[in-house]
Design a protein that fits this description.
CATH superfamily: Winged helix-like DNA-binding domain superfamily/Winged helix DNA-binding domain
CATH class: Mainly Alpha
Shape: extended
Helix content: 55-70%
Keywords: DNA-binding, Transcription, Transcription regulation
Radius of gyration: 24 Å
InterPro entries: HTH_HxlR (IPR002577), WH-like_DNA-bd_sf (IPR036388), WH_DNA-bd_sf (IPR036390)
Number of strands: 2
Protein name: Transcriptional regulator
Strand content: 5-15%
Distance between the termini: 68 Å
CATH topology: Arc Repressor Mutant, subunit A
Pfam family, one: HxlR
Strand order of the largest sheet: 1-2
GO molecular function: DNA binding
Number of helices: 6
Length: 127
């Protein structure tokens, strides 16, 4: 990958790494316009100030726009989400694999013997 491609991917990732940016785009993936309030509800947990900031950034990046019925993805935004669509399938497989790995780790740990307080030696007083 050349330096121009590296710059481009770094710029795109910096935009998408901003808090809630991907969730805002993902909330619009079905193609239905959403009002500010509906978009805020769809994203969940986002403050109005943060949503305003993300909308501004994503509009400047030409990934979403505001139509007569609300916010919608631009053709570039739709293209990006099509390319990220495999992420959902990957995420499902990854979560299952992580759960199996964690279960195997838990099964490998030997059980620690329980020691009652009565069986423990008394603490030494420091002088």
């Amino acid at each position: 990958m050349g330096s121009k491609e590296n710059v481009a991917i770094h710029q795109l990732l910096a935009l998408l790494e901003a808090r809630y940016a991907l969730r805002v785009l993902w909330s619009l993936r079905d193609g239905h316009p959403q009002t500010f309030r509906l978009l805020q509800d769809s994203v969940g947990g986002i403050t109005p100030n943060t949503l305003n900031t993300r909308i501004k950034e994503l509009r400047e990046a030409e990934l979403l726009t505001h139509g007569s019925d609300g916010y919608i993805l631009t053709p570039s935004g739709t293209d990006l989400l099509k390319r990220l669509n495999d992420l959902q399938a990957f995420a499902g497989k990854w979560v299952v694999a992580q759960a199996k790995k964690n279960a195997a780790k838990a099964a490998e740990k030997p059980a620690e013997p329980a020691v009652s307080k009565a069986a423990q030696p008394p603490a030494q007083a420091s002088e």
